[in-house]
Structure formats: C-alpha cells, structure tokens
Description:
Layout: E1 7-10, H1 16-27, E2 31-36, H2 40-52, E3 57-61, H3 67-81, E4 86-89, H4 104-132, E5 135-140, H5 144-147, H6 153-173, E6 178-185, H7 191-194, H8 198-206, H9 216-227, E7 238-241
Parallel strand pairs: 1-2, 1-4, 2-3, 4-5, 5-6, 6-7
Helix pairs in contact: 1-2, 1-9, 3-4, 4-6
Amino acid sequence: MELDGKIALVTGGSRGIGRSICLRLASMGALVYINYVNRTDAALETRKRIVENGSRAEIIGFDVSDSAAVTGAFKQIVAEAGSVDILVNNAGITRDGLMARMKEADWDAVMDTNLKGVFLCSKAASRGMMKKKWGRIVNISSVSGFAGNPGQVNYAAAKAGLTGLSKSMAREYGSRNITVNSVAPGYIETEMTDQLTEEVKGQLQSDIPLGRLGTTEDVAGAVAYLISEDGRYVTGQSIHVNGGMYM
C-alpha cells in the first residue's frame, strides 16, 4: 500500500475527525499512533477498528500543549517505531463565549492547545523528517479561521494562526522534501453537531451550497490526498472542506 513503512501520528485521534483520519491513513498502510489526552477508551476503540481492518495502530497519551510531554512522546515513538514521517495536527478544544465576557484563561487554553500545540509537535516531528528528507505535516484548521464566528474569537484566532504557521513552515522545510498544508473543515457531523436541534441543522444546511453537513470521512479524504504521492507537489496550501459555505 502507498504508505507502507511510514509512521504517522494523529493528535486528537481518538474521536470524530481524528478517528476517521487514523482509519484512513492506516488503510493506506501507515502504522498510526493515536494521540489522546483523557479518553483512553475512545483511543482503544479507534485502535480496535484499525486492527480489525487488518492494519496497525498504537495509542499514545499526552497533552500537545505540554512541551515536556511532547518531547517525551516523540522520543517514545522514535524508540518504538524509528521515526515520525507523517504528522496530522488535529487536537483542538473550544472555550466559546462572547469576547466582552471571555475569561483570559479561556483564551490561553485554546491558544495553548490549538496553536502552540501545533508548533510544539511540528518542531519535534521536523527533526527526524529533515534527516530523512521526507515528511508530511497537515494542520487541521477551520472555516472559523477564515470567516470568523461570533462567540469564538479565541478559536477563530488560533485557527487563523495556523494558516500563517503552515505557510511559513512550508517555506522553511520545502527544500527537505517536507510538505506542510492545512485542511479547513466547515460544519462536520460529529458528536458536537449531534447535539444540535434539527431546526438548527436545517439553518446551517441552508447556508451550504451542497445542502448537507460534511462527514468526518470527507475531511479524512482531503488529508489523505495531501499525504499521498498525488499531493507531493502541494505545499503551503489551505484545502477547504465545507460544501461551499465559504469560498
């Protein structure tokens, strides 16, 4: 398979979009490390699904915003598997609220996980990638980082920051055959959107030219393209997966 012999780490890989990305990369032949923080059960379920499909996966728990934890996790993966060839920075949190009422701690928490975490993991992964002169980094952004969203100034700012981070990394690492891109999902069917009423879902769909919410598999497909040989000449780009709601 296309990714045979490659080692992939997907942060926030235990559920939702992250789970689908793990399943997709494993189906392409990669050994996938599934990162999680608290939900060990969810990470084990993702691994179970991958193994049942005849592919390989391991779980690894660490907080992407903790520098020491990130360093330790990458040392563990390298010791066990030899390298990290593919990094998908998917881990993210929300602490929504109107800016006038937002607590500084909520701003800091979102920035630490959603932006600083990408910096820490990418820096750690890039060392081995530069030595091998091959690597793929995909950062999961959001439509909110491009269009903005009321009540999400912290989340939108962090996701917008990923665009500049990804482009700068792409310029720095391109000469080492390392591509860096971002994927910006719109409204995707996840546990979060499952909590919305049918009325709210209908309103959301009315703003989407394709007339439906996206699936986690839609996002995983875009990630798979960027990591695959077909995407070898694509770097510094933001791929929008939103059904046309943002153009």
